[in-house]
Design brief:
By secondary structure, the chain is an alpha/beta fold. It has helices at residues 4-63, 93-108, 113-121, 126-130, 177-181, 196-204, 222-237, 275-278, 288-363; strands at residues 78-83, 146-148, 189-194, 208-213, 243-253, 256-265. The chain is built from 9 helices and 6 strands; from the N terminus they run H-E-H-H-H-E-H-E-H-E-H-E-E-H-H. Strands 2-6-5-1-3-4 form a 6-stranded mixed β-sheet, sandwiched between helices. Helix 1 runs antiparallel to helix 9 and helix 7 packs across helix 9 (288-363). It is elongated.
Length: 364
């Protein structure tokens, strides 16, 4: 049985930790409120940009703009933009992003016989399971075409079919991220990271981290989105990469957020089936390509900036929830330790009384 001094020392230690977690909870709550307000303030501009793009994209594909150039070369590289946290103590926020990233990398690689056999063994009906999931369905914030992946303990991987070619891989497995890293060619992916956690994670797994942005995850600025968009466009136009995708965490509420995958480049019209609804006569000044050269980079910057804001709000909400849970757990632990302390003290008093009574009886 532990001594009273050791129990008191542990109670004091837990109380100190509780004060720290409570302070971090309050700070994260305040910062999350500001991050949420920034996301809400940015939404009207992002929504209008999406609306303009929807109306222009159907015609822009016919104009042959280079940012709509789909390349059917499966051997080309993919630039993957991963947005995670700079610091820890945010629950499973960063780890869910990494699970989604490894799922995206695994599903985007060449077909693997071992994984295919595993999927067949589990009798996974891919067509039935994913027939309602578009390559890029609209998400709630930007109304941007994206593929939603909810990171859970059992990650689910599905079909990946681009608009200009067929690239289909398998689904549903319980392999870890490290096991998937051994099944894909890491040389086919260039990683751009936002957040120190993401940078360390991919560097330690020998991925090619071409650029990183540390120290901005909680307070992103539009200049950061501009720099990322410029790098992505330059890499795509130069032929270094065939496509650009982004993984971020979408903020739904203070207690709910989910990692998502958004395909950025090449652009393509959202829905050709409803193309007639968007077609119209437009007058371009000075000419269509010049207008698109100016608008499309701004549109990409808007998408990335929205993702940075969503990720910042998600990170802070995850940290708030984690610190709130840690504070509650510390309070429960303190109560248990106090109960244990009282039991030890009472046992000590009982032993002393027994010794006194035993000594008195011996004298008699």
């Amino acid at each position: 049985m532990a001594s009273l001094q050791n129990v008191r020392r542990r109670i004091r230690s837990v109380k100190n930790i509780q004060q720290i977690t409570k302070a971090m909870d309050m700070v994260a709550t305040s910062r999350m409120r500001h991050a949420k307000e920034a996301t809400i303030a940015n939404h009207p501009f992002a929504a209008k940009s999406q609306e303009v793009f929807d109306r222009l994209a159907v015609q822009a594909e016919d104009l042959g703009h280079p940012l709509f150039d789909y390349r059917e070369n499966d051997e080309g590289k993919t630039l993957l933009i991963v947005i995670a946290a700079d610091k820890g103590l945010a629950g499973a926020y960063s780890s869910n992003v990494f699970k989604t990233a490894h799922a995206e990398i695994a599903s985007g690689g060449n077909d693997d016989d071992e994984i295919t056999k595993s999927a067949e063994k589990e009798n996974v009906n891919l067509i039935e399971k994913f027939k309602n999931i578009r390559r890029r369905p609209r998400h709630q914030a930007l109304q941007k075409m994206s593929r939603v992946i909810k990171a859970t303990a059992r990650s689910t991987y599905g079909n990946r079919t681009s608009s200009g070619g067929n690239r289909t891989t398998i689904a549903k497995t319980e392999r870890s991220s490290e096991e998937f890293g051994n099944l894909v060619d890491k040389g086919n992916y260039d990683i751009l990271t936002v957040g120190r956690k993401a940078t360390d994670h991919f560097r330690h797994r020998n991925f090619n981290v071409v650029r990183y942005y540390n120290g901005i995850s909680e307070r992103p600025k539009y200049q950061h989105a501009q720099d990322i968009a410029r790098f992505a466009i330059d890499s795509f136009l130069s032929g270094e990469v065939n496509e650009v995708s982004m993984i971020y965490t979408h903020f739904i509420s203070a207690i709910t957020c989910e990692p998502r995958v958004v395909d950025l480049l090449p652009f393509f019209a959202y829905d050709h089936d409803s193309a007639d609804a968007f077609k119209g006569e437009y007058i371009y000044e000075p000419d269509p390509l010049t207008v698109l050269d100016s608008f499309l980079p701004k549109y990409l910057e808007t998408i990335i900036y929205e993702a940075l804001l969503q990720s910042a709000a998600s990170e802070l909400s995850s940290r708030m929830n984690a610190m709130s849970s840690a504070t509650d757990n510390a309070q429960e632990l303190i109560a248990k330790l106090n109960l244990y302390y009282n039991k030890v003290r009472q046992a000590g008093i009982t032993n002393e009384i027994n010794e006194i009574v035993g000594g008195a009886n011996a004298l008699n």
